[in-house]
Amino acid sequence: MAKPNQIVHIGGINVLGLSSEDAEFYTNYPEDKVKRVVHKVDIRLVPMLAVLYLISHIDRANVGNAKIEGMIEDLGLNGVEWNVVLSVFFVPYVLLEVPSNILLKKFKRPSVYLGILIVCWGIIMTMMGVVQNFTGLLVTRILLGVFEAGFFPGAVYLCSSWYMPKDLATRISYFYCASALSGAFSGLLAAAIAKMDGVGGYEGWRWIFLLEGIVTVLLGISCFFLLIDSPALSMRWLKPDEIRYLELQKFIKDGGRYQEESEDRFRWKDLRMVLTNWRLYMQAYILLCSSACSYGTKFTLPTITKAMGFNNTNAQLMTVPPYVAGAISAIVFARLSDRFYWRLPFVAIPLCCIFVGYAVVISFKGDLSGNIGPSFFAIILTCIGIYPVQPAGSSWAANNLAPTRRRAIGVAFNICVGNIGGVIGSYMYLESEKPKYYTGFGLSLAFGATGCIVAFLLELSYKWGNYRKARLSEDEVRARYTDEQLIDLGDKSPLFKYTL
């Protein structure tokens, strides 16, 4: 057995407390078996998360589709009330993300916790189909935010538990591209479902909420049976050696851990370490830029395409190409990011696309119908820029947080602050400015530019951090700190190397 304080270097990660037997097993595990076990995880985790994330974004953003089908007129909403309805979702959504991931750690089976959330928000979605006034819509949107809050940070944390850092961005992108596709599906579904106008005495926009809510409830129930939890609970489809490999992978990724340490025990110190991590605020700002542009687009794109001169049904259908382009770009940029194991270019380039796209749109001064081709291309370019930022940004943050407890809180905090952009996105596009939308297009342009600048500063800070840590030799570090202190320091440990 290795000495308790022996440091083993595996895959560029410094690991404490790994026995020589386990180190030999992990490093000599055949490459074909590694590919087979990763494929097993891929087919069971990624498609399920993709479908669930798809439905979550459809459910939160389909009010934009219901709007042009007559919801505002039927409920008697004015311009300000519409913006309030959009933004109020994000109040509980932002506030509950960190507590939700703390609570998630208490569950032995994350699938149970996430399944409960999904069933609950599906029920709320169906209730939106029968609201009669502004108050009813407001309450259901608040409750929707309460139950949707825990899904995305929980999904990112679940992915970070199953995959090594070099594989994380691609996997997150596979289910995050569903965020882009949700816009496409939402437009297609709304165009089809709205034709049920009058069926059962309900307006077409009500059927959008009713049918999509029922589908969400069914998916939530399936989550209990289909979503995987952890290697130790996967004996039905994993072999013993595969379970051992995945458990060691998790141990190595965390830099080591003592067996007596309780992963499920919440510590205020972990929360304090996350809240005082200044780099995490830079990560969160990048996500905020992407989030503000994303939600602003989701809530307003049907209205923008209608301003190009299309009727209701065609306006819904014309929202599809930008979202499909966004989904493709999310996967392409993430695969390149993992291929080169470098995050900065694949965050900065998309943010530049956002800047350029909105600069083109705002230059037309509202004359979108007179510039359909360039306007539509610019909107597609903005979606190509919006959707790769979250996968690369989320994995960049997750890879630079340790140990496991702190990563769970930090991932949720990062997404939580980033989602404040959803509140901004709800108010950027003012009805009184339609179709010029100087505030919305201008702010989106500014977010693209400033997000790009922050990404470069963040990269420099990580390089500076690694340089400072490298000044201490391994012997100096081990003389200054005990093994327990090094593991407790997590990403602040002199032995922890930041991922660029």
Automatic annotation (TrEMBL):
Q: Which InterPro entries match?
A: MFS, MFS_dom, MFS_trans_sf
Please name the SUPFAM superfamilies in this protein's record.
MFS general substrate transporter
All residue ranges annotated as the Major facilitator superfamily (MFS) profile domain in the record: 45-463
Which PROSITE patterns does this one have? MFS
Q: Where in the cell is it found?
A: Membrane
State one Pfam family annotation.
Answer: MFS_1
Membrane topology qualifier? Multi-pass membrane protein
Transmembrane stretches, start-end: 111-131, 137-160, 172-193, 205-228, 278-297, 317-334, 341-362, 408-429, 441-462
Query: Taking the first listed entry, what is the main subcellular location of this protein, grouped into a coarse class?
Result: membrane
Question: Which molecular function terms from Gene Ontology are attached?
Answer: transmembrane transporter activity
Sorted alphabetically, the keyword list is:
Membrane, Transmembrane, Transmembrane helix, Transport
Instruction: Give the protein name, as stated in the record.
Output: MFS general substrate transporter
This protein's source sits in the domain of life called Eukaryota
Say yes or no: keyword Nuclease present: no
What's one GO-annotated cellular component? membrane
